[in-house]
Amino acid sequence: MCNTWGFYTVLTGLPTFFSDVLKFDIDTNGFLSSVPFGATIITIVCGGYVADFMRSREILTTTNTRKLMNSIGQFGPTIFLVMISFTSSVFLAVLFLVFAVGLSGFSTAGFSINHLDIAPRFAGFLLGISNTAATVSGIVAPYVMGTLTTADSSNPILKAQWHNVFFLS
Length: 169
Description:
Blueprint: H1 2-20, H2 30-56, H3 62-86, H4 90-103, H5 114-118, H6 123-135, H7 137-148, H8 157-168
Helix pairs in contact: 1-7, 2-3, 2-4, 3-4, 3-8
C-alpha cells in the first residue's frame, strides 16, 4: 500500500507541483516525463538480478533478500521525494524524481515477488487481492493531495503545503 501511495502521488501530483511551485511545464517535455519511469525499468531488472545473485550464492536468505530489496525500494524513494519538496531547482527536482521513481523498482524484488515465495500455486490469486487493496490508494492519494494543497499557485504557502504531501508519501 505504501509503495502505491507514493506511486500515485508522483503520477497524479508531480505535474501540478512542477507547474505551480517550480513554474515548469513538465507536459511540454515528454522526455523528462518519461525518464523516471525508464529508470524504474532498469532498477526492476537490476534488482531482480541482484536478488537472484544474493540468493543463489547464499549471501542472504530469501527472507533477508526480500527485506533488503523492499527497504531500498521504499526508503530510497522516501528520501528523494522529501528532497524534491526542499528544492527550487527544476534540474534537481527532476534528478530527485528520477532517483525516487527509479529506486522504487527494487520493491519488485521485494514484496511484489513475495507471493511466489508464500504460495506458488496461488500467487496470481494473492497478487490480485493484494494489488486490488493497494490500488485503493490510487483513489485516496489524489484526494488527500488536493485537500493538503489548497493555496493558489501564486501563494508562497503552497510550497509548504507540498512539503506535507511529500512527507506523507
